[in-house]
Amino acid sequence: MSDIRFYLDEHIAGAVAKGLKSRGIEALTCIEAGMRTASDIAHIEFAYINKYVIVTCDNDFLRLHSEGKPHAGIAFATRPFAIGEFIRKLQVLHQSLRMKDMENHIEFL
User: Fold this and answer.
1) Where along the chain do its domains lie?
2) Burial class of residue 51, CB neighbours in 10 A (0-12, 13-18, 19+)
3) Which residues are within 8 A (CB) of 33 and not within 5 positions of it... i.e. 6 or more apart?
4) Which residue intervals define the domain DUF5615 in the entry (predicted)?
5) Helices and strands per DSSP (H, E), number in the chain
6) Are 102 and 73 in contact (CB under 8 A)?
7) Cβ 55 vs Cβ 12: under 8 Å
């Protein structure tokens, strides 16, 4: 069983987190974490410290990665997805990789 936990930034619909949770996958929205208006650096640090893979479509996280900012992993949405498709893609990632595989890694969805 995978140990990946997801942290969804403010650009990802809360319904994605709800769908993941209903499938037994740990997911936390930035709103639930009290981080809605936080900077991208604050998000990446929060996720890193708490061992969450960030789910995002925000290119700023790609920039932070390229600058060498450590992170627990980034699941990057390359285009808009329907909620169900988004959940399925994250489910596949969850079933395929472990947290140690995701550290400082970007998985393009």
Assistant:
1) 6-108
2) middle
3) 7, 46
4) 5-106
5) 5, 5
6) yes
7) yes
- Options 3.40.50, 3.30.1890, 1.10.3430, 3.40.1350; CATH of 6-108: 3.40.50
Question: How far apart, in whole angstroms, are the C-alpha atoms of residue 30 and residue 100?
Answer: 23
- The single residue listed with the structure tokens 């995701």 is 102
pLDDT tens digits for range 3-53: 999 999 999 999 999 999 999 999 999 999 999 899 999 999 999 999 999
- Six token digits for residue 103: 């550290």
- Residue type at position 51: K
| C-alpha torsion 45→48→49→53, nearest 10 | 120
Quick check: pTM over 0.90? yes
Tokens of 63: 């920039």
What residues contact residue 54 under an 8 Å CB cut-off, 6+ apart?
6, 7, 8, 9, 43, 44, 47, 61, 71, 72, 73, 74, 75
Q: Which residues pair with 74 in a beta bridge?
A: 54, 106
